[in-house]
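call fold(seq) -> tokens
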Amino acid sequence: MSDVGVDESLLKSVAEQVAVEAAGLVRAAWTAMQAGGVVRVDTKSADTDVVTAIDKESEELVRERLAELRPGEPVLGEEGGGAAAGSGVTWVVDPIDGTVNFLYGLPAFAVSLAAQVDGVSVAGAVVEPVSGRRWTAARGQGAWLDGRRLSASSPTRLDLSLVGTGFAYARDRRVRQGALAGELLGHVRDIRRGGAASLELCAVGAGWLDAYFEHGLHRWDWAAGALVAAEAGATILLPGSAPDLGDDVTFAAAPGIAEPLRQVLASLDAKRV
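ret:
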């Protein structure tokens, strides 16, 4: 990794600062919606895959602020695209992770921003606009929630583990993912589906979930949250690293149940989804 001279602490501070600013914009829009305001909504890959004007405004704010604070560094964003990786620092942003929750008035959505070097996250922040919670991490420096150091849970039995997951927008794939989740229910305590991958990954880091897996996530979905989980001690498998579970699976689990969960998912033919 060509990261000589990278200051992870500084990058984390920048990620947090910019994500907080974007979260302020998103919170103001969400509050206005709760009061009866209307926001423009379009669709992307499917009718269920929505994007709002606020997603775009949030990403524009992030790009503008990064251009001021970190001039010349490329940005990969859900709405504006960009290069996935390269030499030096690349910023990866999800301007509203959990857009459907945002539209329905559910408070479980976040602004996610990470700094990557050669495709690897080295610093990041996930900020919740409604609660104001700030999840942050820097490589080798631990993960934090509002100043409290995080630690993944320590379960020893898979059957007593709480597992999070998520589903794709495409109907056929969503049906297959639902079938897999149904089969997994017989092996774990229960399953949760929160609707925002970054927050699910952070929840693993906090010990609020013992594990989380999902197929089909994009880099902006996991770039910051997976770093939070990893720095809190969770076992992480990113897309492309676990062909037994599927080429596009994202997997985070407490170390005590990571291998048993992986084995069960593989036995259920998780890669079929």
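The first strand starts at residue 41 and ends at 43.
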